[in-house]
Amino acid sequence: MEMSFDESFDALSVSAWGPDTRWIAHTPWSGDFGGARFANPEHGYPFTTEAGILRIEARRNEGKWTSGLLASVDPRGRGFAQQYGYFEMRARLPTGAGVWPAFWLIGKDRSKATAEIDVMEFYGDKPDGYSSVVHVWHRDGRHDSQYKRIDAFVAGDPEEFHSYGVKIDAEFIRMYFDHRLVWKASTRPEHRQPMFILLNLALVEATADDAPDPSYMYVDYVRVYRFH
């Protein structure tokens, strides 16, 4: 494979909605979720970079939680997306009730269904592992999913740097933890298309008020490789 996308966070190219930045700070379909609103980027919040590490911060502002999300395409579909290949993030995750960091992919064509791959979805009150899920959200209300709990961590381990990856081809979606295969699922027709990247520190709505204030997610890099 050869590298097709390399975000090392020596600096951060981000705007609220684009264009002309590598990332935007919202989902391209303008949908927030969970117990925190995703903030427009300002100097020092919710994103900071230092020594090649991105810090995403969640905190209360006037009693309401805000946090950060990055997406690699804007509402008009401009930006990075790729069909097939290997997508990886290396990150440290916060622990504690309410925190909900994730690394995920969405298919660019959402006209008939939304194809979603949750490479890593972590709940801070369950620090022994994380979830990987493959979704298809159909426009007629049907929802198909394949799910795996990855019991990857020992005590305190999610707060160390680990890599979370997915390799996608026409047959399988393979999940990796620290470059070790931990699960594979069948590739649905809806996932045979260019996928774009999202990463975020969300909060679980029901337990957001129990989250450490502030909470931090640290990201070393996001890299994508394509097949030769």
From TrEMBL:
Record CDD domains: GH16_laminarinase_like
Family the entry assigns: Belongs to the glycosyl hydrolase 16 family.
Protein keywords: Plasmid
Record-annotated GH16 domain positions: 7-228
Gene Ontology biological process: carbohydrate metabolic process
Recorded GO MF terms: hydrolase activity, hydrolyzing O-glycosyl compounds
Protein's name according to its UniProt entry: Beta-glucanase/beta-glucan synthetase
Keyword Acetylation appears in the UniProt entry: no
A Pfam family assignment: Glyco_hydro_16
